[in-house]
Amino acid sequence: MLDAKTVEIVKLTAPVLKEHSHDIGHRFYELLFSKVPELNNMFNQTNQKRGLQQDALAYAVYEAGANIEHLDAIKPMVHRITQKHRALGVKAEHYPVVGGTLLAAVKDVLGAAATDEIIDAWGRTYSYIADIFISAEQGLYDEMEHKQGGWIGVRNFVVDRKIKESDVITSFYLKPEDGKPIASYEAGQYITVWLDIPGEKYTHVRHYSLSEAPGKDFYRISVKREEGRANVPSGIVSTYIHDHVDEGSHLKVSAPAGDFTIYTKNTPIVLISGGVGITPMISMLNTIVETQPERQVTFIHAAMNSKVHAMKEHIGKLARQHERVKSFVCYESPTEQDRAEHNYDKEGFVTLEWLSSVIDDKQADFYVCGPLPFMRVVLRALKDMEIPDDRSHYESFSPVGILEEA
User: Fold this and answer.
1) Distance between CA atoms of 316 and 320, rounded to whole angstroms?
2) Which burial class, exposed, middle or buried, applies to 77 when counting CB atoms under 10 A from its CB (0-12, 13-18, 19+)?
3) Residues annotated in the binding site, as ranges?
């Protein structure tokens, strides 16, 4: 346990670290990659360039410090991070170098304000929290290693089928190269794909939500092609997968992980997605229909229009076949054909008023996934609808915990 003096120093200085969080995160990764360049292979290089990974680190450090006396408050964050660490292969031996580098970054940014007493207190705190992470991650490794069809590290898979779902989203059906069983998973979880792309210095790693119900002899991921736009380049990985990964291609994959999962109870459930955020929601919807057909499901999806709306026919078919499933669609910019066919329920953006009108039971459990601006709006609406936090769940494809302001 941490002594009272250490706890006091950390609580007093946590706001200072938060104030300088971006600079500390940036300096940390500069130092880390200069010390251990091979760790570049574990990180999303696009998030690094955009500064998202740096902000994610600083957010986690601040949350740990601010809640040092009540670590139960950060259990959800710890669970989410340990799941990603297991998927990435983070090990106990990585923690000392990360801790030393983090403290060096704090000293570099804060200068004389980072006294030896403060650095020592944060060093003790880091070691204390690192032990919590290491123990939790070892449990996850042990569980996956002994799970039927489970594996540690990467395993070779072959693309069995490649199916275009919309103008921007394509599904890839993956089967194990060795023909042996694969680990099951919970609806909403993801697998991690490791790609060595010609011309790229480091391995690119991406987490992709599984977009089918578990229990099959394959994994399905549905990948959005990220086209470039103002000040944002095209996605290196997504364009490579769309253009160069075909049926018969081989991919290195880490076993399923993730904490964004549905509870197996019979309460009504509302699934709200935007854009490619539909992928884990499809897994959840298919799972409920297969295993809990009596459960009430409201499926709400927002997209630009039908041209980029993946799996629309499948969702519509389920809604027609199962009276307990309701589907609602919001298009920001419907095409002329969309308007002629009246194949959507709302034009424009998702709003509090519209959500309130289509959600029958506010005692339901709510799951949200999509672009960050979309999720901020939806989570803010759920708060305004007085949905308790323990019934409001979300998955962010960004590493940054920036939804606390919602």
Assistant:
1) 6
2) middle
3) 85, 190, 275-280
CA distances, 19 to each of 13, 15, 107 (Å):
10, 6, 14
Binding positions for FAD: 190
- Residue 95 annotated to the active site: yes
C-alpha distances in Å from residue 77, one per residue of 24, 74, 148, 321: 20, 5, 27, 38
Residue list for the binding site for heme b: 85
- Using a 10 angstrom Cβ sphere, with 0-12 exposed, 13-18 middle and 19 or more buried, the burial of residue 60 is buried
DSSP annotation string for 276-314: GGHHHHHHHHHHHHHH-TTS-EEEEEEES-GGG-TTHHH
Binding residues for NADP(+): 275-280
Averaged confidence pLDDT in the chain: 91
Span 154-257: which CATH code? 2.40.30.10
Span 86-116, pLDDT tens digits: 999 999 999 999 999 999 999 999 999 999 9
Count Cα atoms within 13 angstroms, Cβ side, for 169.
Answer: 22
Angle ∠(123,127,133) on CA atoms, nearest 5: 140
Give residue 38's pLDDT band: very low, low, confident or very high (50, 70, 90).
confident
CB atoms within 10 A of CB 219: 26
Cα 40 from Cα 50, distance rounded (Å): 15
Which CATH fold topology does 269-395 show?
Answer: Rossmann fold (3.40.50)
Distance in angstroms (rounded) separating the CA atoms of residues 239 and 11: 45
**Is the pLDDT assigned to residue 235 strictly greater than 50?**
yes
Question: Could you tell me the CATH superfamily of domain 4-146?
Answer: Globins (1.10.490.10)
Whether residue 137 lies in the annotated active site: yes
Q: Which one of 29, 59, 62, 95 is the catalytic residue?
A: 95
Question: Which amino acid type is present at position 285?
Answer: L
Q: Give the domain ranges of the chain.
A: 4-146, 154-257, 269-395
Catalytic-labelled residue, pool 63, 137, 165, 186: 137
Read off the pLDDT of each residue in 226-253 and give the average, rounded to a whole number.
89
Tell me how far apart the 2 most distant CA atoms of the chain are, in Å.
69
